[in-house]
Design brief:
- Helices cover about 40% and strands about 20% of the residues.
- By secondary structure, the chain is α/β, with parallel strands linked by helices.
- It has one domain: LmbE-like (Rossmann fold, 3-Layer(aba) Sandwich).
- The chain has a seven-stranded mixed sheet with strand order 3-2-1-4-5-7-6, with helices on both faces.
- Helix 5 links the parallel strand 4 and strand 5.
- Helix 3 packs antiparallel against helix 7 and helix 4 packs across helix 5.
Length: about 220
């Protein structure tokens, strides 16, 4: 992976997520597409260590899985911000913003990618990262665009009983950008399956999405 100090003439994109696997279960086709002509980086707030025993061991496993997924997608660098899975509450909003800003001031991306304000699945950590990314976007003049990954109504219906409450998806008329990821579907699938600790979820999501269009959807904000 490229260090912060290495320079590149390419435009850069930074995707900001709460957990390892958010990048692959989310806009991985778009990330792979961007990686063909841009330097793409991922900032991950946590290492996804909650939900099982042996948290420190799980954190190492999930961090390695994200790095493997990133390599598959052509992502240049992955940076973990050091927060605890499940603890991204309002008490740490500004601490998270500071960590994100610190990295962005080094990378100086033109584009940010994160989840839409409902966090796609309604996960509180996702919602927090989306909110804080919006805050940072407003503060940094060199970032010109933020792309909020979302899903459409059909995909949300397929996932309706996946989480305690899965928010409704967006109508196509509400979506600002649709990315055709047919050429990148194999990479997306490989990236998802690289998260072996989450393999059951990967197979569930892939199964439910099998017959849906190979597209990814975004809400867009520009300066």
């Amino acid at each position: 992976m490229q260090s912060d100090k290495q320079k590149s003439s390419k435009l850069s994109v930074v995707a900001i997520f709460a957990h390892p696997d958010d990048e692959s279960f989310g806009p991985s086709g778009t990330l792979a597409k961007f990686a063909k002509g841009h330097d793409v980086f991922v900032l991950c707030a946590t290492k996804g260590e909650s939900g099982m025993g042996f948290a420190s061991k799980l954190a190492k496993i999930r961090a390695q899985e994200l790095k493997k997924s990133a390599k598959i997608l052509g992502i240049k660098g992955v940076y973990f911000l050091g927060f605890k899975d499940g603890m991204l509450s309002n008490s740490i909003y500004h601490k998270l913003a500071e960590k994100i800003e610190e990295k962005l001031k080094i990378i100086k991306p033109q584009i940010l990618i994160t989840t839409e304000p409902q966090g796609v699945s309604g996960h509180i950590d996702h919602i927090t990262v989306s909110m804080v990314t919006s805050y940072v976007f407003n503060r940094l003049p060199f970032v010109k665009t933020v792309m909020y990954y979302c899903i459409d109504e059909k995909a949300a219906e397929k996932m309706s009983n996946y989480f305690i409450y899965f928010p409704p998806g967006y109508k196509r008329s509400q979506v600002d950008k649709i990315v055709d990821i047919r050429k990148y579907w194999t990479l997306k699938r490989k990236a998802m399956l690289a998260h072996k600790s989450q393999i059951k979820d990967a197979h569930t999501v892939l199964g439910r999405m099998k017959y849906l269009p190979k597209e990814e959807y975004f809400l867009i904000r520009k300066k």
